Amino acid sequence: MSVIQRNVTRTVLNATETTSYTKSPSADELTFELDVADNFYIGYKNRFASRYFHFSTLNATARTITVQYWDGTAWDAVEDFVDQTAGFTKSGFLSWVNVSGWNSYALTPIDDKDLYWIKITVNGALDAGTKLQSVLNLFCDENMARVYYPEMISDTRYLPPGRTDYLEQLEAATNLVALRLKQHHIIEDISQVIDINEVAISAVHAFAYVLLNPIAKDESEKESRDEAEINMNKELNRVKLDLDWDKSGVIETNEQNTGNIFIARS
User: Fold this and answer.
1) Boundaries of CATH 2.60.120 in the chain?
2) Judging by beta carbons within 10 Å of its beta carbon (0-12, 13-18, 19+), is residue 55 exposed, middle or buried?
3) Alpha carbon 251 to chain centroid distance?
4) Strand partners, 154
5) Which of 100, 125, 217, 263 measures 20 to 30 Å from 211, CA to CA?
6) Global pTM exceeds 0.90
7) Any idea what DSSP says for residue 115?
8) 10-136 in CATH: which number?
9) pLDDT (tens digit, 9 = 90+) per residue, 72-115?
């Protein structure tokens, strides 16, 4: 039995919903051969400032990516756009800084509810055969996990059966950090964390905990698992988060350094 997912990131290619292809690490691949006339949209119930694009078949020719938001009457360019996919030639984050004028609306064919949409276009065709595996809300990726836990990332024995990546564990780690924040009444929704850099290190330790928890057998493995959980909590205790209390998508002055969380460290 699958869990009903209502709060997923929705995606639309031109006028066709593609969420079923992009909503999870294990979804079917989406043929992602964008051309200059194509529009790819990503939407969520609240304003957001980043999404992780994972490709199962990479585009080899870098393209310039344009990201726009809906201001109520037209599409406008986002501010401070950062492309860590190198023009869709590798998996990575797309991120931007929100402005106060981002409006929600009902995008065809998802016309039953208003969402906050980002429109993505490219300046040239992506290579034939480019496949997009998923568009996820992650707090960290394998590159950051490799810095703190290189032995796990480099050792294929840690890979779950049938998997060639750690996307499922990275998503679970993100959800675990968000759950901790919710449990301590710091946030109501994951989108209130606008700057994922503030929770990225905590998410890396959460990733190690998620990875080790089901396989820890001897005392050494259990100690490593418990240490990862302790470090996750320590990092959350260490940072005073900038949190989007009013869900405007923008961190106002009175929202800076207001998210304090205190969790037992051991």
Assistant:
1) 10-136
2) buried
3) 19
4) none
5) 263
6) yes
7) E
8) 2.60.120
9) 999 999 999 999 999 999 999 999 999 889 999 999 999 888 99
